[in-house]
Amino acid sequence: MSISLLLLLVAAIGVTGYVGGNRRAQALAGGRLSSLHSRPGYYGSLVAIWALLPAIAVLLVWIVASPVYIGSTIRSGFPEAVQAEPQATQNLNYNMVGAIARGLKLLTPEERATISADAAAARALLSSKGVPLAADPAPYMVEAAQNLDRMTTTSRMIVTVLVLAAALAGAVVAYRSVAPRLRARNRVEGVMLAGLVGASSIAILTTIGIVASMLTEAVHFFSMVPAWEFFFGTVWDPRFAAAGATDSSGQFGLIPLLAGTLYIGFVAMLVAVPVGLFAAIYMAEYASSHFRSVAKPLIEVLAGIPTIVYGFFALASVGPFLRDISAQLNGLATGSYASFIQAQSVLTAGFVMGIMLIPYVSSLSDDIITAVPRALRDGSLGLGATRSETIKRVVLPAALPGIVGALLMTASRAIGETMIVVLAAGVAARMQLNPFEPMTTVTVKIVNQLTGDLEFTSPQTLVAFALGITLFFITLCLNIYALYIVRKYREQYE
Amino acid sequence: MNILSEAAVEKALDKKMNDVSYKMIGQDVSVYYGDKRALYDVNLNVRENTVTALIGPSGCGKSTFLRTLNRMNDTIDGCRVTGRIALDGDDIYDPSIDVVELRARVGMVFQKPNPFPKSIYENVAYGPRIHGLARTRAEMDAIVEKSLQRAGLWNEVKDRLQESGTGLSGGQQQRLCIARAVAVSPEVILMDEPCSALDPIATARVEELIHELRANFTIVIVTHSMQQAARVSQRTAMFHLGQLVEENDTDKIFTNPDDQRTQDYIMGRFG
């Protein structure tokens, strides 16, 4: 029985349990619902939960445990010679067995017999059924595959029985426990609480898992390249990793990448901060509520544009435009029509990233400016200050800590931004100050080092994890500091 | 002849009006918030160098009327004022009037103390700085000191003028706000329940202060406390449901009001 059908059956038992529990509670109440501890629906839900949870638990255990158990049993059945081979080869062999086993299900009994007699015929026969094999299977593989097929079928049958039994048993036990004084409501809410706790811990555990996996790979990298060479090296030249080569001949200096990241982020903030802040001031202080209700969502649409689209925009429009206009300007000034702005440059990437950041700055600042109490504005206006004096001297100073926090959060986005810089900043890891030349960023290099056919154990690849963890800590620190500032500021008014 | 002709009544009233000097005059003042009408044709004059108390149950329009006197209602979306309000004879809703200038002449103290998150000195210096009242640092120091003295706060804060105004106690904050309003040298000070967020001792200090300020300023105060109105004001106006019920000498209002509603409100039968 397939798993989806099984789940459907379990769900049906759950629904029946709900209806049954509900009915039984009502019957026990005998028309006086107030004699029940909980409303009948809660009894129904309790029965349904008891039907579903144990069954799903059994199923989950099976999904995790059965491939491990079957796999180790089959492998231990491999001939001694095969078992002596390296782990990687054994994995390949086992995968082949798995493929044959899947193929066996498609064959008629006669064809199965052919295969077990003549292993060499298996490849042709199976590929005619749409199951391609990488090589001619060895005779022991066909045998193992047949074992595997048998074990899988048996384990499926067992799990089907177990799951259905668990569902029915749970439902029956819960159904029989339905009684007027049973605190069904509290129990159902307990299960819901557990579900909520589970959901939030998944989010937290995932973060921890990501950091841990990055850390292990980064530690691996630092065992090959000294940490100080990475953090303080001024040359980025990773070279290519020759297959199987163990020595790392490249140079992995973080400084040029970090310089590019910060420079491009700085240009982006130069664009985003004034525009975003002024837009926020207009929205919060001057705009009529009608205009605001239309314009604010429109600005926030900018935040919903995927960054790859900004990347196109930079690559196809802004970059060439800047290049051409610089050629024209140069021509007017000196007579030589050579462009001094390159299409891929710090300026292009920074400018487009700045546009991307405008809605973050404006929307965060808008919230913070609006949070400044009306009493302060009234106090200032009541003293005969104009609106703009009130904004400059009272509202903005009061909102400043919050705005700084918002800008720090925006800056951490700028530093982590990838697609725009991949397309618009260039890949040359250089340290220079001319904004018209290309530079590269940490994120671009992570993309570069992880794409293509790479050996995963070489420092050339692993450096991406070191870069990633560095980036992660920079943005983490920025975000924590920003949150700290914002929170401290909030306390003033509450 | 104890029945006077209408003309004679008019004449008597005119005479009465000429006897006292009115700082602000409100004629047929109505206020609308969107479609909702908050004030109905209020006729209320404010006498010079007098404390006028506005009393009445919550939502009766007394704060709304107060806010029309320096056009603070302008900052509320959808608020509309009709009728005529004059300051020294000039209509303050006339387009030729600069609202900024008006608010410098008619200052305001709010219900909740709202010092700016700046130093005590900067809080007081804020208004004078905006209006360019001091040319030198020494002049500004003098204005700040005088204002704080008038607000009875100088002795408490003279050694910590650079500390934040938000660090003061509630009563001190409210006196700081009064000092801030006084610093601009307004002619009229509007107070919207200035003691409602203060404890009794701080309230007593502010009331004392209002007494002293009367010598130099015209004061209009909104209050929920009958006792406070009786203690600090010379004239009292009673509002109910957006209408002015009556306006008279405070003694008269509290001992022998003309209107039954005033009587009931003062006796605590509603409100």
From TrEMBL, chain A:
The chain crosses the membrane at residues 41-65, 157-178, 190-211, 256-281, 301-321, 341-361, 394-415, 462-486. Pfam families: BPD_transp_1, DUF3708. It comes from the Bacteria. Keywords: Cell inner membrane, Cell membrane, Membrane, Phosphate transport, Transmembrane, Transmembrane helix, Transport. It is found in: Cell inner membrane; Cell membrane. It is a multi-pass membrane protein. Residues 258-482 form the ABC transmembrane type-1 domain. Belongs to the binding-protein-dependent transport system permease family. CysTW subfamily. NCBIfam families: phosphate_pstC (TIGR02138). Part of the binding-protein-dependent transport system for phosphate; probably responsible for the translocation of the substrate across the membrane. This is Phosphate transport system permease protein. It comes from Shinella pollutisoli.
From TrEMBL, chain B:
GO terms for molecular function: ATP binding. Residues 24-266 form the ABC transporter domain. Belongs to the ABC transporter superfamily. The lineage of its organism: Bacteria, Pseudomonadati, Pseudomonadota, Alphaproteobacteria, Hyphomicrobiales. InterPro entries: AAA+_ATPase, ABC_transporter-like_ATP-bd, ABC_transporter-like_CS, P-loop_NTPase, PstB-like. Keywords: ATP-binding, Nucleotide-binding, Phosphate transport, Transport. It comes from the Bacteria. This is Phosphate ABC transporter ATP-binding protein PstB. SUPFAM superfamilies: P-loop containing nucleoside triphosphate hydrolases.
